Amino acid sequence: MTTEHSHATPASIADAIGQALATAIAERGTALIAVSGGRSPIPIFHALRSRPLDWSRVTVALVDERWVAPDHPDSNERLVRSELLVDRAAAAAFVPMKNAAADARGGQPGCEAAYRALPRPLDIILLGMGEDGHTASLFPDAPELRAGLETDALTIAVTPPAAPHQRLSLTLSAILASRRIILPISGAAKRATYQAALSPGPVEAMPIRAVLRQGGTPVELWISD
Ligand SMILES: O=C1O[C@H](COP(=O)(O)O)[C@@H](O)[C@H](O)[C@H]1O
Fold it and tell me: Which range marks the domain in which residue 70 is found?
């Protein structure tokens, strides 16, 4: 089921995430969120990081990672540490995807073990979508895409055909195992991508379709100008 929220703002999205985390903490004592990298989540991180939650009970994981050093400008870990895990959110635990392996394929088993050790299900995923219809690091035409859409593993190494860096990504099954998925869509280009994703066509051409076409996990689209 997909719910559309129009006129979204970083504050309204942070409200929804903060409430989900607070509910999880109240019900189970802990909360687990996986967040995307890229540009889109930055204003949401800024609105979320000062929310009055018991952040010491929150664990932050990643939706995907570029296989670069954690201080590289393209590192999603660097982004999350610098833009989310500060202020009140500095008390949260963080589970990186990047490890010491030389490449993403070599690092996948260690990442899989680290993510399997997390409590499940994820309470919430802050998902992203590229203008090419990729989500997480499930890229159109990636050689590993079919496996990423079908495997029961939580993570997969991906070689994007047209984007920089090897990736480590949550798989579709791991994404859909979340209690709730929040997908912000901002700007004309992303809105056009979303409309294209709603049209008939293969999932392989726009992997976000696999998230939008399923009916088991609630997906909230937060749409802004
Ligand atoms: O490469 C990536 O791209 C997507 C979309 O990024 P954005 O900059 O267009 O918001 C992101 O969701 C993913 O985490 C990231 O690794």
Answer: 9-123
